[in-house]
């Protein structure tokens, strides 16, 4: 299980090696993704709170990266955080995510990226539920739910 101290260490020193990497040109990403997905995944944008596909959805399945299809979160780890975006307590694996310090918008946060394609997913915070206390606040546009 991932803990806040692990997230800090990854962001500060080195992230886990991804199982493989996906690299595309800007033109290829634009062709593959919708404009909203491109804005979030490739331009580090944020979708509107509460008006996104997975905020209030609790269907079973696996959430994968909308850019490359890497499995990121299990639906069992999703919870109602009242943040306006889908929130998860744990990723499927430590190697699926990349963590970076983010001081944009005059805030100190830790950005979460897909470790395979480098797409921006959202941010992680240490205010989640017990026992691990993590809240992965992820943009719906960066995800795709694959039903099991």
UniProtKB/TrEMBL annotation:
Domain MsrB intervals: 26-148
Reactions that this protein is recorded to catalyse: L-methionyl-[protein] + [thioredoxin]-disulfide + H2O = L-methionyl-(R)-S-oxide-[protein] + [thioredoxin]-dithiol
GO CC annotations on file: cytoplasm
Database matches in Pfam families: SelR
EC number: 1.8.4.12
Entry's Gene Ontology BP terms: protein repair; response to oxidative stress
Molecular function terms from GO: peptide-methionine (R)-S-oxide reductase activity
Record key words, sorted: Oxidoreductase
Entry keyword Oxidoreductase: yes
Cross-referenced PANTHER family: METHIONINE SULFOXIDE REDUCTASE, METHIONINE-R-SULFOXIDE REDUCTASE B1
Designated name of the protein: peptide-methionine (R)-S-oxide reductase
Origin species: Rufibacter radiotolerans
């Amino acid at each position: 299980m991932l803990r806040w101290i692990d997230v800090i260490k990854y962001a500060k020193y080195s992230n886990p090696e991804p199982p493989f990497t996906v690299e595309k040109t800007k033109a290829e990403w634009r062709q593959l993704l919708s404009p909203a997905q491109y804005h979030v995944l490739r331009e580090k944008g944020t979708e509107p709170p509460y008006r996104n596909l997975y905020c209030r959805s609790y269907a079973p399945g696996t959430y994968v990266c909308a850019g490359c299809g890497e499995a990121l979160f299990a639906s069992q780890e999703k919870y109602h955080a009242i943040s306006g975006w889908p929130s998860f307590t744990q990723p499927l694996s430590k190697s699926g995510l990349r963590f970076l310090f983010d001081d944009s918008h005059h805030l100190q946060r830790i950005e979460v990226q897909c470790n395979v394609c480098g797409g921006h997913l959202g941010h992680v915070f240490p205010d989640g539920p017990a026992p691990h206390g993590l809240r992965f606040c992820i943009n719906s546009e960066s995800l795709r739910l694959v039903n099991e």
